[in-house]
Design a protein that fits this description.
Blueprint lengths: L1 E9 L8 E3 L4 E3 L17 E2 L2 E8 L11 H12 L1 E4 L7 H7 L10 H11 L13 E4 L11 H19 L4 E4 L1 E2 L3 H16 L3 H4 L1 H25 L10 E2 L3 H16 L3 E11 L4 E3 L4 E16 L7 E6 L10 E4 L13 E3 L6 E6 L11 E4 L5 H10 L25 H14 L3 E14 L7 E10 L2 H13 L3 E3 L2 H11 L4 E2 L1 E2 L9 E4 L13 E3 L3 H11 L9 E3 L3 E2 L1 H5 L2 H4 L9 H6 L2 E7 L3 H16 L4 E7 L2 E3 L15 H8 L1 H9 L8 E3 L1 H28 L2 H13 L1 H4 L5 H22 L3 H29 L1 H4 L2 H19 L4 H15 L19 H10 L1 H23 L10 E5 L4 H9 L1 H8 L6 E4 L2 H5 L11 E3 L2 E7 L2 E6 L6 H26 L2 H6 L2 H37 L1
Parallel strand pairs: 7-8, 9-10, 15-17, 21-29, 28-29, 30-31, 32-33
Antiparallel strand pairs: 1-5, 1-6, 2-3, 4-5, 11-12, 11-20, 13-14, 13-19, 15-18, 16-17, 20-22, 23-27, 24-25, 24-26, 32-36, 34-35, 35-36
Helix pairs in contact: 4-19, 5-7, 11-12, 11-17, 18-19, 19-20, 20-24, 20-27, 21-26, 23-24, 23-26, 23-29, 24-26, 24-31, 26-27, 29-30, 33-35
Length: 1049
């Protein structure tokens, strides 16, 4: 008999109904398949609309294969409706065969697994209409170079959510893309142009420069998408987007026009943050306020009518004195109350300016009197507006001084600061100059000091747009995780400022604005007018309609500014799906998005703006949940930077330790809204865990293939899967324990992911696999197989092992996709099909727990599960005694387990696991389990969690519960004299540490000057050392008694 594999695409609905080919023993069963007499391995394995069918080609002599003429006719008709295609191979199985006996080598498997996933179409959303689609729009990385650890975080978190929902059979749509990042990209392209050709962008011209920028985009996008694939991103690459794609550019243009026509966009002269290096305005959110060492300059503002009298002023920017238009004091400040309304003289300039009063003045800063320069300071600008003060701009756009500065014209602002201060010193106007920590506004992109300048820009009115965006959070239509950021979000929205959206750059989205050039008309005063339109022709039509009296040829000039990158990014969740065409299938199916996962540092940059624009342009929330992760920091909590030398390249980490190890190290330390402490040591731990998984899989498959026939354990596997209560009733306590723990694990992990506590989910799986499964059940399984010939229960162990391992791989897959897919394929290849499995783990069904069955199972097994917990406590206690008293690993010890009479059921359960208990605790074959109340009475210790051991008659007695007393014999197992010598040295060393710490903590100077954290650490360390000495003394006394007994023999 030969097993053949066919993929069949069902060409018509009629072909989906239980078609049987008796000739080949093939059964097509529609959506769900079951075991049949003809095909023992047939089950649902959906792949891109196809069905995998297992065929048994039987001998023609088999009476069941004889067809009647009518049956043969119907068969031929049905076969004509079936298109048979070539089987999709799993390309890495042969590679697995070669790697199986070696340590885990992720670099040899990850690329081939990912390519197989992608080419197989597993990342494309399924057509399951019974569930609401799960959609995430990937935050688009900037095309500025390599991805960093922050990108690795969001890729890992989003991929976990996507893989989980895909396995839950939701149609999952994760859309990747990249951002043009106008300021950052233009800066880098300019730098490249200068280094390679020695030219500026002005020298090569706008057209050539944009060609270079697009070449840069193509090169960087290819590299970024390769990195995203290497990180395991299971996104739908067929939907990949770039923020300056043609369709997205049309969406940006349409959004601008609609907002303008609704009265939200306007043009005006306002104070903006100007980047002299980049020669563009930048938003408030793109300015980083950095604390730096500087100076506070104190000088005299002399009164116009009394030159010998003055108001003392303190400033951090003396060069702006040249643009002062007032001196401002607090109206309640008694020092200057009488001076309000008088006039003072601006140094060097000689301009008379008034002393005014405003409650915005901080009376405690400097002298309490504030110089007002509305054209170069944001607070001064607001005060100036309230008091109707003039705006005097004293700087050019390159941060040099302009024509309003007299002899200082042309100087750089910093040079002007120095020279103006020297002049004021010579004039006797200087009071003092003292060191001061100042907050300096620096461009997030270029790093240079940003200068507040009055400039003609385009703005979005945000006050009205913010209202529905606030209501969405308040009503719960959109929730932010963690919830504490909702208050921060609402506070920012309530105090929102208009948004400057124009940038003086070449690379980016052009504003759909046309200006009227010089024309031979009677409307000379209208020559600077503009129109907002989708095309130049539409602009011409609007001009003619708006200005019907225009004469001659109309000439239009398109706005050369580009839009703020965050404007186009704000449209990302719906522009990706076809907006403004809301009739596209993608928009109808996948909008609003399910989740927006991003860093808390761009809550205002991006998230708030997406919500505002989403409601205004679509009438819907762009997403229902916002999940915020923190910033990746080093193990000491410091920000990663090249200066500190603590930057880790995720690609290098993946190359050295594997992608799965990096992902697990990130997610298990990532808690919503909290910064992520990261170190290579954590990656090493999870690389070791990956190697553990590799070894577990190898152990299970090698042993089962060598020992058993698949049909033997498969039936029991099915029973465990369908009804664990019935199937496990006759199995051992350990089997019941591990299945109970697995069921609880599945429920807990699913809940944690649903609640976005991905760290808890990841840690819970790791703990289960490493502790419950590997350290306990697999070790017990080994003892079961040792007994197999005597008791014949090894086949039950095989079924339970595969059942648990299959579940573990499914649960762990979203976190460690590569190794789990490899292990699962290897399991399927060697052990055959499993319930609810498909052609690939990435699309296999997530473990489901029927709650009624789970609860009844747990309740029924409660006593036996408790018995196994006692079993583990006993083994741990014996192991601890062995370690504490220096028993060699190879040395077996005599042990007795005493139980009270009331624990008869526990005694029965422990006897069932007698062999496992003996092997795991490394005891002699004479291990006894006794029901004996009298021995408890003899024990002088009362049960408590910190009970010390007792020594009697060569045994260490430890009471580990009110009904369990352990006795471990030490005679003949150790050399007491050697142990006494070892403990004496340990105690002497600890004594020195105790003396040092005690002396330090007795020192009043240390207690007064040391940080509280350091003092607490010293106190905790002292307490720890003292407890260690107490334990050593107790052990020393026991060893002393053993030594005396040995000498007496």
């Amino acid at each position: 008999m030969t097993i053949g594999f066919l993929y069949v695409s069902l060409a018509s609905p009629t072909a989906q109904h239980n078609y049987r080919s008796k000739k080949h023993g093939v059964t097509l069963l529609g959506k769900y398949c079951s075991w049949t007499r003809y095909c023992q391995r047939c089950h649902n394995r959906r792949l891109l609309g196809s069905w995998l069918i297992f065929c048994e080609y039987k001998n023609s002599s088999d009476s069941q294969n004889i067809l009647t003429q009518e049956e043969e006719k119907r068969e031929k008709e049905a076969i004509n409706r079936i298109v048979v295609t070539k089987r999709r191979e799993v390309p890495f199985l042969e590679l697995m065969e070669n790697l199986w006996k070696q340590p885990y080598q992720p670099e040899k498997l990850e690329r081939v697994i990912y390519d197989w996933w992608e080419t197989s179409g597993y990342f494309v959303p399924s057509n399951n209409t019974s569930k609401t689609p799960f959609t995430i729009s990937m935050p688009p990385p900037n095309i500025t170079g390599a991805l960093h650890m922050g990108h690795a975080v969001f890729v890992t978190l989003q991929d976990i959510l996507v893989r989980y929902h895909r396995m839950q059979q939701f149609p999952t749509c994760w859309i990747p893309g990249t951002d043009h990042a106008s300021i950052a990209t233009q800066m880098l392209v300019e730098r490249m142009l200068k280094s390679q050709q020695g030219k500026t962008k002005e020298e090569v011209g706008r057209e050539k420069f944009l060609e270079l920028a697009w070449q840069w985009k193509e090169e960087k996008t290819k590299y970024i998408t390769q990195q995203l694939r290497a990180m395991g991103s299971s996104c739908d690459w067929s939907r990949e987007r770039f923020t300056m794609d043609e369709q997205l550019s049309k969406a940006v243009e349409e959004a601008f026009i609609r907002l303008y026509e609704s009265g939200y966009i306007y043009r005006g002269h306002y104070l903006v943050n100007w980047s002299p290096l980049l020669q563009t305005a930048v938003s408030d959110l793109e300015v980083e306020w950095v604390e730096e060492d500087g100076f506070l300059y104190y000088f005299k503002y002399c009164f116009a009518d009394s030159p010998n009298e003055y108001i003392p002023i303190a400033t951090t920017r003396p060069e702006t004195i040249l643009g002062d238009v007032a001196v401002c004091v607090h109206p309640q400040d008694v020092r200057y109350k009488d001076r309000i309304g008088q006039q003072v003289i601006v140094p060097y300039i000689g301009r008379r300016i008034p002393v005014i009063a405003d409650e915005a003045v901080d009376r405690h800063f400097g002298t309490g009197a504030l110089k007002i320069t509305p054209a170069h300071d944001h607070l001064d600008y607001e005060i100036g507006k309230r008091h109707g003060l003039a705006l005097i701009n004293i700087m050019n756009r390159d941060a040099t001084m302009n024509e309003h500065c007299g002899c200082f014209q042309g100087l750089d602002r910093m040079e002007c600061r120095s020279k103006l201060w020297s002049w004021m010193e010579s004039e006797g106007l200087v009071l003092k100059k003292e060191p001061y920590c100042i907050r300096v506004p620096r461009s997030q992109r270029s790093g240079e000091v940003v200068e507040p300048l009055i400039s003609l820009q385009w703005f979005v009115k945000t006050a009205s747009l913010a209202l529905p965006a606030m209501k969405a959070i308040q009503s719960g239509e959109i929730r932010i995780i963690p919830s504490r950021f909702e208050k921060i979000y609402l506070h920012w929205m309530q105090n929102i400022h208009d948004w400057c959206i124009s940038r003086q750059l070449w690379w980016g989205h052009s504003l759909p604005v046309w200006y009227l050039e010089d024309m031979e008309t009677d409307c000379k005063q209208e020559q600077d007018s503009f129109v907002v339109a989708r095309s130049e022709q539409e602009a011409l039509d609007k001009v003619k309609a708006k200005y019907p009296n225009l004469m001659g040829k109309i000439r239009l000039r398109r706005e050369t500014d580009v839009l703020d990158t965050w404007f186009s990014s704000g449209l990302w969740p719906f522009a990706l799906l076809g907006w403004p065409n809301t009739d596209t299938l993608d928009y109808q199916k996948f909008y609003p998005n399910s989740v927006m996962e991003t860093g808390y540092d761009i809550l205002f940059f991006w998230v708030a703006r997406m919500i505002m624009l989403g409601y205004e342009l679509t009438g819907k929330p762009p997403f229902h949940t916002v999940y915020l992760h923190g910033l990746v920091r080093d193990a000491k909590g410091q920000k990663m930077s090249k200066t500190l030398g603590n930057v880790l390249d995720p690609l290098q980490v993946m190359a050295d330790y594997g992608t799965d190890a990096l992902r697990l190290a990130l997610v298990t330390n990532c808690h919503a809204g909290q910064d992520i402490p990261f170190s290579l040591e954590k990656v090493v731990v999870h690389r070791n865990f990956a190697n553990k998984l590799w070894n577990i899989g190898r152990f299970i498959i090698q042993n089962i293939r060598q020992r058993y026939n698949q049909n033997d354990w498969a039936r029991l596997y099915q029973q465990i899967f369908q009804n664990p209560l019935q199937a496990l009733d006759h199995l051992g306590v350990a089997e019941k324990f591990i299945v109970d723990r697995l069921y609880k694990l599945t429920v807990q992990v699913s809940r944690h992911i649903e609640e976005f506590d991905l760290a808890a989910a990841g840690n819970r799986i790791v703990d289960f696999i490493w502790d419950d499964f590997a350290d306990w059940y697999i070790e017990i399984a080994k003892t079961r197989w040792q007994e197999d010939e005597l008791y014949g229960d090894g086949i039950q162990v095989a079924a339970v092992l595969i059942f648990v391992w299959d579940y573990c791989l499914r649960l762990l897959h979203p976190f460690m996709p590569f190794i789990t897919e490899a292990q699962w394929q290897w399991l399927i290849y060697h052990c055959g099909s499993l319930p609810r499995s498909t052609d690939a783990l990435v699309i296999t069904e997530w473990p489901q727990m029927e709650h009624s069955l789970f609860h009844s199972f747990s309740k029924e097994m409660e006593q036996q599960i408790f018995s196994f917990e006692c079993f583990r406590d006993i083994v741990r206690t014996i192991r601890k005694i062995r370690g504490d008293y220096g028993v060699a690993p190879s040395q077996k010890v005599k042990a007795i387990i005493y139980l009270k009479q009331e624990a008869e059921e526990l005694a029965w359960a422990l006897k069932q696991e007698w062999n496992a208990l003996k092997v795991l605790a490394k005891t002699e074959n004479s291990l006894d389990i006794e029901l004996n109340d009298s021995v408890f009475a003899a024990s002088q210790s009362s049960y408590n969690a910190n009970a010390m051991e007792e020594y009697r008659d060569g045994f260490i007695y430890v009471l580990i519960s009110p009904v369990i007393l352990i006795a471990v014999g030490l005679r003949g197992s150790i050399d007491p004299h050697k142990e006494l010598e070892r403990l004496t040295k340990q105690d002497q060393k600890l004594q020195k540490e105790v003396e040092i710490l005690s002396s330090r903590l007795d020192n009043p100077q240390f207690l007064q000057n040391a940080p509280a954290k350091v003092v607490d650490e010293n106190k905790q360390l002292l307490e720890q050392y003292q407890q260690q000495r107490q334990t050593i003394r107790a052990h020393w006394n026991i060893f002393k008694m053993l030594a005396m007994e040995k000498e007496a023999q």
